[in-house]
Amino acid sequence: MAMNILVVDDEKDIQLLFEQRFRREICNSDVAFEFAYSGKEMISSPNRLASMISNKKSKHYHNG
Amino acid sequence: MKRLLMADFILVWLIFFLPETGVGQPEISLADTVRINQSIELSHQFYEDFDVDSSLFYAENALELSGQLLYSEKVESDEKLFNRIKALKIQSYVAYARALSGTDMQAAEDSLMAGLHLVGETGTISAKAALYSGLGSIYDRKGQNDQALQYFKKALELYQLSGDQENYLSQLINLGLVHRVMGNYGESLEYLMEALKTGRQVGDTAAIVESLLAIGFVYAFVEKWEDALRHQQEALEIYQQANNLWGIARIHNDMGVTYNLAGELDSALVQHQAALEIRLKSTDTYNTFASYLYIGDIFADKGDFLKAIEYYEMAIPYGNRSGYKITVVDAHLRLGKYCLELPDKEKSLIHFKNALQLSRQIGDPTGQSRAAMELAKIRLGKDEPENAVAMLKLAETHAPEATLRFRKEIYKDMAEAWYKLGDYKSAYLNSLIYSALKDSVSAAENLGKITRLTNVLEFENELALKKESNEKMMAIKEAEINRERFTRNIFLSGMILAVVLVVIIFIRFIEKKKLSHKLNETLSNLRATQRQLVHAEKMASLGELTAGIAHEIQNPLNFVNNFSEVSVDMIDELTDEMEKGNRDEVITLKKDLKQNLRKINEHGKRADAIVKGMLQHSRTSTGQKEPTDINALADEYLRLSYHGLRAKEKTFNADFKTDFDPDLPEVEVISQDIGRVLLNLINNAFYACDERSRSTVSADTPATADDYFKPTVIISTKYLVDKVVISVKDNGNGIPDEIKDKIFQPFFTTKPAGQGTGLGLSLSYEIITKGHGGKMKSESRPGKGTEFIIELPT
């Protein structure tokens, strides 16, 4: 069973970093990533039960 | 009183045992001149010791010896020696005359005249002066006052010329005494005062005493008893200091005379008796005689004739021994007179006869005349007119022409005697002479009285004038002294005042110095503290900035790290795939690797930009004004502040809004300083909001979403005509009215201790007003919020 992870950060480069870091896991379908760049995006994400990794210091989070 | 000393006896010895020289002997030895000189000195010394006979003996000796020498051949041929012997002979004449003056005035005068003849034109000044002075004394004794004055004046001039102070003073005193006898009291006083003054100047005690005594009698004669006694008292003190008994007796004598003149007989008696007591212990026979006579006179004045006669009788032996026989005549006359009062006619007769005999013997016409007249009176009383007439004729012969009153008495008695004898014609003639004389007498007496009165008046006038001028002088002197004293006092008080002032100023100065030192110390302490505080404030704001900066710089660094790590893994993977020969995979990996490297570069640049921005901050801290975009600055610091606060405080909860004027021009400001101002204001605003939200939350939970307090800070900018307005507004609790005007004061803070420096707002105010010429004000409504407004000129 593959893990679904939702990553929320206002730094858009985080997606690229994660996709490359977990490239092998993604290829093996061990992990599935979903990315959100703001709180609103996160809420509207389909996989909302996924584990949340968030940079809590993101200003957009508070600013939203 | 002077006594013969041992030296005098040696002199006597010398005179008698030196080798004799006489007429015909060719050798003139030095011993001869010495002998003459010594004889002269001895003569003077014996004279001063009242031994007239011895004085006369040595004077004769000197005269004879010098006379013999002067006309010897040897001396006549030697001019120098001749002059020397001549001088000695003149001195001998003077000594001889002096010795004779008491007993034979005519002989004395002759001696002096002979001396004067010898002196001629060539004689020495001092020799001439001595002769003149001697002649003056003789004429003085003879009552020839005008001549006496003349000679004394000549002597005075010569002594003044020769500079002989002692004798000059003697002449002054002699002149004063003669004038006094003449009744010229003013002139007398002038001479005597001059003598006293000069005497005091040169310290000649003898002259001082003589002047004082003579002046004393001048005052006594003008009936100024107190002045008289005062001068005599001063003389007495001088004698008392020198312990001179002879002198002390003399003053008592003089004071006695003064008291007697003043009519104070008892005081006079005391003085005379004091004088007598001293004199009895001395060999001064003449003055002892005089004291007895004075005391006798006083008793006679008191009417005690027995006592008077007793004293007169005691006087006579001393009078006889003294050699001044003329005074003994006087004593006998008095005795005769007072014996008559007892009445003891026989005894009286004896005394008058003695007086007559003695006066005849010594050639005293006045005494003879008076004695004869007294005898005639007794004869008349005894009814012996023939004897009386004989006596009266004798009296008439010897009576001095000058004493009219006396002569009048003679003619009166004579008329009476002739009348008793029955020779009426003679009686009538005599009575005619008597009445003529009587008129003359009264005229003369009146004249005398008038003269005397005039003299006294003149003297008084002169005295008054002198006194007045003296008083004037005194007044002037006193005024001068007063002025000097005044000036001195003023000067002194001025000095004291100045000193006091100087002291006060000095003390003040020291105090001020101490104070200023203290103040300086305090000031430097304050400055140090201020510097520290400013530094602390700077550090605090730097910390706040750092917190904001840290977040900004952390993200790119994370990317750099992570991308590089991933890339290392990917390189390993790429190597594996290349060995496998999986070409597609390799291409994908290479493409990703390239992308990763770009991202690393990108984020590295991002971090670099942030650091550069910080460096720019530190660069602008040099304080250079440069055109700045206030909007950007405000936004930057708003964010820095926000993140700083959030970094420090996890529970920090506030929102912010910006309302920037897009037309805002760039303003010339020191961006770091304005940044600090904004940071301060924004921090304060957030702090205020946060405070309020905390208190609200803790107080009650809001019921609805509308009631929910949203802490918000609004930053807005606006461009007006010539200025840029920046507003920092919060919706906190606001500033209470009572501290509104304190908020810009340095060190004023409402924050808990240790949290705020109280310098933030004051520094901000200074930066805006002083640094940029702008304005800064606050508007606050308690419970609603605060707005700080900055106006910067463009």
Beginning-to-end CA distance, first to last residue of chain B: 125 Å
Main sheet strand line-up of chain B: 2-4-5-7-6
Extended strand count of chain B: 7
Uncertain parts of chain B: 1-26, 698-706
Q: What structural class do you assign from the helix and strand content of chain B?
A: mainly alpha
* H/I helix tally of chain B: 26
Alpha-carbon distance between the two ends of chain A: 34 Å
In terms of DSSP E residues, the strand content of chain A is 25-35%
Largest sheet of chain A: 3 strands, parallel
| DSSP E strands of chain A, number | 3
Determine the structural class of chain A based on helices, strands and strand pairing. alpha/beta
DSSP helix fraction of chain B: over 70%
Rounded radius of gyration of chain B (Å): 69 Å
Broad shape of chain B: rod-shaped
| Strand percentage of chain B | 5-15%
- What's the shape of chain A? flat
Percent helix among the residues of chain A?
25-40%
- As an assembly, this protein is heterodimer
